[in-house]
């Protein structure tokens, strides 16, 4: 193989033919956005939309400054700065491969315990949008709302000038902006949470209220918190992805693979301006909620259905798990009978048509998305993606044996062993708490439902308690395949007491 070409500005002209590169002069770019959480998804999605605008000669004053608030973000910072914040995107469609280098990001702030650099950049008058992808679990949000008593947040309240969380950094920076007269900004969540803008507003305003009520009032009155829905399947980068980019002749230390589908729906509420993302395919609307509900329930909920069962049966990827006859049948039946009836159509899609699209996307064998990655942080993803469907289903007076089985499979997953006896390594920030509960639930299913921060009032619903107990016993006594087949074929399963 020829020597790899290191990815950086000075080598763009030497990249292999067919690789799209920035045509805009990056020296002309100036910052307008601070983005917290520079993972693969942001670089394949929001940063790509901005890059496309720049390719058309627009949004030159909206470049991205990257940021992180966790120590592990430093490694990504080092990798990206070494290659001038460029990223190779590799689109993997079953019919073709497309490769593009994007350059909408121009810097990455130092990752500091007191978040000083982040506070200073948000406070800078050039910053007009702060966006974030900090994962669903990063919002300190439980069934009873924002957990202001969390140790991280109490620390921010005690030392507001040296915050440890992104929300504390935002509050500190907004205090500086307000004092300097620089004006409000837009805070844009791009995480998979329904009403994510409302959740972000509540987090920031609640935290500000604890230290500076006048500032909290200004933030609530003046800053914008649009809701948004984001959609693109983007695997984590590992040896397979590195081999792929090296096979193209490019030495990129942080390449990103993704599917040939993107969707971004944004509530058009920006108090300090915005890039014209709608010119490159984003949908600006006054009602994001119906789009959110369809995507989070069908796609993200479907991901959890497939991932937990796949992990338990030692099926390594989402495409293989969806293609598996047993797991695929579970996905189809739960989606069609217990999720779709609670989903409203959106412009361009009925729930049935969207499910067909999702199934095809899950089956794409070129997207090597692992069941382990998708199963990560179930303690945030089940409450966010599956339990809303379960609550609505029960509220309508309809049974939900499939969703109860999916919860039982998650409980079995958290026991920490697969059906073949291999060990499931910890895969949730709450693993040390989940595993003892899961093990105890194999003999007393109600132990699992005692996690009030996850199940809330659902744990007291007699229909769900009975269905969940039956499902746990079925998985235990019949095995994963046997329990799924019994559900799919409508067979009677072992009964359990839900007392």
From TrEMBL:
Does the UniProt entry include the keyword Oxidoreductase? yes
- Fetch the PANTHER family from UniProt: MANNITOL DEHYDROGENASE 2-RELATED, MANNITOL DEHYDROGENASE DSF1-RELATED
Q: Which InterPro entries match?
A: 6-PGluconate_DH-like_C_sf (IPR008927), 6PGD_dom2 (IPR013328), Mannitol_DH (IPR000669), Mannitol_DH/Oxidoreductase (IPR050988), Mannitol_DH_C (IPR013118), Mannitol_DH_N (IPR013131), NAD(P)-bd_dom_sf (IPR036291)
What Gene Ontology molecular-function terms does this entry list?
Answer: oxidoreductase activity, acting on the CH-OH group of donors, NAD or NADP as acceptor
Q: Does the keyword Oxidoreductase apply?
A: yes
| SUPFAM superfamilies membership | 6-phosphogluconate dehydrogenase C-terminal domain-like (SSF48179), NAD(P)-binding Rossmann-fold domains (SSF51735)
* Keywords for the protein's UniProt record, in alphabetical order: Oxidoreductase
Q: Which Gene3D superfamilies match?
A: N-(1-d-carboxylethyl)-l-norvaline Dehydrogenase, domain 2 (1.10.1040.10), NAD(P)-binding Rossmann-like Domain (3.40.50.720)
Q: Which residues form the Mannitol dehydrogenase C-terminal domain?
A: 287-473
Species whose genome carries this gene: Pseudaestuariivita atlantica
Record's protein name: Mannitol dehydrogenase
Any idea where the Mannitol dehydrogenase N-terminal domain is? 32-279
């Amino acid at each position: 193989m020829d020597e790899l070409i290191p990815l950086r500005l000075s080598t763009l002209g030497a990249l292999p033919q067919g690789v799209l590169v920035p045509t805009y002069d990056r020296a002309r770019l100036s910052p307008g956005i601070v983005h917290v959480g520079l993972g693969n998804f942001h670089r394949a999605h929001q940063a790509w939309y901005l890059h496309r605008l720049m390719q058309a000669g627009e949004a030159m004053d909206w470049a991205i400054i990257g940021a992180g608030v966790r120590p592990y973000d430093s490694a990504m910072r080092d990798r990206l700065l070494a290659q001038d914040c460029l990223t190779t995107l590799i689109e993997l469609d079953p019919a073709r491969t497309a490769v593009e280098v994007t350059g909408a990001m121009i810097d990455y702030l130092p990752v500091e315990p007191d978040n000083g650099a982040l506070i200073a950049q948000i406070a800078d008058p050039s910053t007009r949008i702060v966006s974030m992808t900090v994962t669903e679990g990063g919002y300190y949000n439980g069934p009873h709302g924002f957990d202001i008593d969390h140790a991280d947040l109490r620390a921010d309240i005690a030392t507001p000038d040296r915050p440890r969380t992104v929300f504390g950094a935002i509050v500190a920076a907004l205090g500086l902006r307000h004092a300097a007269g620089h004006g409000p900004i837009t805070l844009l969540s791009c995480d998979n949470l329904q009403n994510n803008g409302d959740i972000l507003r509540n987090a920031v305003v609640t935290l500000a209220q604890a230290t500076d009520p006048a500032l909290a009032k200004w933030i609530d009155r003046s800053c914008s918190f649009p809701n948004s829905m984001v959609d693109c399947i983007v695997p984590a980068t590992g040896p397979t992805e590195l081999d792929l980019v090296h096979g193209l002749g490019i030495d990129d230390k942080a390449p990103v693979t993704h599917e040939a589908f993107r969707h971004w729906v944004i509530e058009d509420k920006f108090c300090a301006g915005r890039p014209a993302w709608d010119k490159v395919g984003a949908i600006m609307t006054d009602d994001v909620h119906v789009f959110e509900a369809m995507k989070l329930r069908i796609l993200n909920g479907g991901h959890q259905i497939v991932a937990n069962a796949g992990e338990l049966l030692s099926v390594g990827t989402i495409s293989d798990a969806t293609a598996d006859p047993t797991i695929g049948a579970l996905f189809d039946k739960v989606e069609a009978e217990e999720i779709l009836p609670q989903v409203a159509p959106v412009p361009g899609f009925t729930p049935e048509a969207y499910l067909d699209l999702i199934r095809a996307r899950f089956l794409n064998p070129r997207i090597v998305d692992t069941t382990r990655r998708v199963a990560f942080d179930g303690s945030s993803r089940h409450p966010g993606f599956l339990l809303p469907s379960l609550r609505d289903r029960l509220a309508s007076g309809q049974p939900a044996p499939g969703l109860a089985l999916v919860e039982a499979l998650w409980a079995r997953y958290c026991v920490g062993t697969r059906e073949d006896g291999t060990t499931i390594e910890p895969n949730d920030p709450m693993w040390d708490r989940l595993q003892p509960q899961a093990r105890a639930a194999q003999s007393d299913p109600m132990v699992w439902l005692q996690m009030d921060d996850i199940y809330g009032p659902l744990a007291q619903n007699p229909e769900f308690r009975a269905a969940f107990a039956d499902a746990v016993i079925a998985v235990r006594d019949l095995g994963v395949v046997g329990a799924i087949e019994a559900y799919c074929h409508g067979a009677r399963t072992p009964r359990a007491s839900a007392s």
